[in-house]
Design goal:
The chain has 402 residues and is an alpha/beta fold. It folds into three domains: 174 residues, 3-Layer(bba) Sandwich (FAD/NAD(P)-binding domain), CATH 3.50.50; 121 residues, FAD/NAD(P)-binding domain; 78 residues, Enolase-like, domain 1. Helices cover 26% and strands 30% of the residues. It contains twelve helices and 26 strands. The strands form seven sheets. The protein has a five-stranded parallel beta sheet. The chain has a five-stranded parallel beta sheet with strand order 9-16-10-11-12, covered by helices on one side. Strands 22-23-26-25-24 form a five-stranded antiparallel beta sheet. α1 packs parallel to α9 and α2 packs parallel to α6. It is globular and about 60 Å long. The mean pLDDT is 96. Its EC number is 1.18.1.2. GO terms for molecular function: ferredoxin-NADP+ reductase activity; oxidoreductase activity, acting on NAD(P)H. This is Ferredoxin--NAD(P)(+) reductase fdr. InterPro entries: FAD-oxidoreductase/Apoptosis (IPR050446), FAD/NAD-bd_sf (IPR036188), FAD/NAD-binding_dom (IPR023753), FAD/NAD-linked_Rdtase_dimer_sf (IPR016156), Reductase_C (IPR028202).
Length: 402
């Protein structure tokens, strides 16, 4: 009987095992996760869960009974120590487990501040796991002073929640503007104004020199010479792919675990899906850090384990919730040379990224129609005239029929 072993118990793993069973796979399935919980949603951790609006059980992607009912061995709190490709086994706490197909769904890990600048002081947090947020929650008291390092989406979402909880929030971004790596100046400006309006002390072009404190963080020195008193710190300076175990096993890596268009690694008995995997797209290897990608890749690998011989076509989409604004993003803006702004009034706004006359991506703020139409246009390879998009009187849905 064929045995599938999955390393990692996140979104990609949950999607993969559900797909296998729904497609009639009758072999053995075992999942090994190093956290004590079954697969759960990560996006709500720093939002609804931290705010107390979502109970722990609602985070779970599937009820715990799902895995037992579908004959999926879910081993939580079980970190995999090594992979022996020749023997086709993994080692977990001295136990060797055989596999026919091995799938890495090892996700990604947050970058942490170096200990040399105070990164190992107590009260310095990242936002990635339930444990991270549970450790942070007691510090989120009305009036507490929090420093957020990093002006990407993680940092901005943390700032929004902290502000809603009544904390005094300072956010520093070393780059010239927030979201500089991922969004146009127009989108940066929109969210800068939003956070400033909610009382966030947002400092761009200003980095962290070092954190200070006697065991517990109590202060921060910034690159502009400012010294701040802080009660705790949230670090949002990016993530790195979880590829160390694969690399040690001799699997090829390239900005993550390198896979082909079907999700196979350099060892054709081994696959990878989700944040940890880099896949071919338009001639280059790329990674996507999103729920949608984890779901799609998990299902792709499941299909191909069962012989579908299906190639991956990425359909990038992302979202971010900040205060009363829901940002939805479709496509990838890499290579854009202009941004078309569509302002429909009443806080409904979208930014459309073009390279010449080709539509690449859309940032939609409280504009679900703009997001939906933009996503469908991009996936269909259609590029409406920029002047039509910019005109708020244009019926966006009509653009789909053009």
């Amino acid at each position: 009987m064929t045995k599938v072993v999955v390393i990692g118990a996140g979104q990609a793993a949950a999607s993969l095992v559900a797909r296998l069973r729904s497609k009639g796979f009758d072999g053995d399935i075992s999942v090994f996760g190093d956290e004590p919980q079954p697969p759960y949603q990560r996006p709500p951790l720093s939002k609804a869960y931290l705010l107390g609006d979502m109970a722990l059980e609602r985070l779970f992607l599937r009820p715990e009974t799902f895995y037992e009912q579908n004959a999926v061995e879910m081993r939580t709190g079980a970190a995999v120590d090594s992979v022996d490709r020749a023997a086709k086994t993994i080692s977990v706490s001295g136990e060797n487990i055989n596999y026919d197909h091995l799938v890495f769904c090892t996700g990604s890990a947050p970058r942490r501040l170096p200990s040399a600048i105070g990164g190992d002081l107590k009260g310095v947090f990242v936002v990635r796991s339930l444990a991270d947020v549970d450790d942070m929650a007691p510090h989120c008291k009305d009036g507490a002073r929090v420093l957020i390092v990093g002006g990407g989406y993680i940092g901005l979402e943390a700032a929004a929640v902290a502000s809603k909880l009544g904390l005094k929030v300072t956010l520093v971004e070393a780059a010239d503007r927030i979201l500089q790596r991922v969004a146009a100046p127009e989108t940066s400006s929109f969210f800068r104004d939003l956070h400033t309006a909610h009382g966030v002390d947002l400092r761009e072009g200003c980095g962290l020199e070092k954190l200070t404190g006697d065991g517990q963080v109590s202060g921060a020195e910034l690159t502009d010479g400012t010294c701040l008193d802080v009660d705790f710190v949230i670090v949002g300076v990016g993530i790195t792919p979880g590829d160390a175990l694969a690399e040690t096993a001799g699997i090829k890596t390239e900005n993550g675990i390198k896979v082909n268009a079907q999700g196979q690694t350099s060892d054709h008995s081994i696959w990878a899906a989700g944040d940890c995997a880099s896949f071919p797209n338009n001639g280059v290897q790329m990674r996507l850090e999103s729920v949608g990608n984890a779901v799609d890749m998990g299902e792709l690998v499941a299909d191909n384990i069962m012989g579908a011989d299906r190639n991956y076509t990425a359909k990038p989409w992302f979202w971010s919730d900040q205060y009363d604004v829901k940002l939805q993003i479709a496509g990838l803006n890499t290579g854009y040379d202009r941004v078309v702004v569509r302002d429909s009034g009443d806080g409904v706004r979208s930014h459309w990224y073009y390279a010449g006359t080709t539509l690449l991506a859309v940032d939609a703020m409280n504009d679900p129609r703009g997001y939906m139409v933009g996503k469908r246009l991009i996936e269909a390879g259609k590029s409406p005239a920029a002047e039509l998009v910019a005109d708020s009187k244009t019926d966006l849905k009509a653009l789909l029929k053009a």
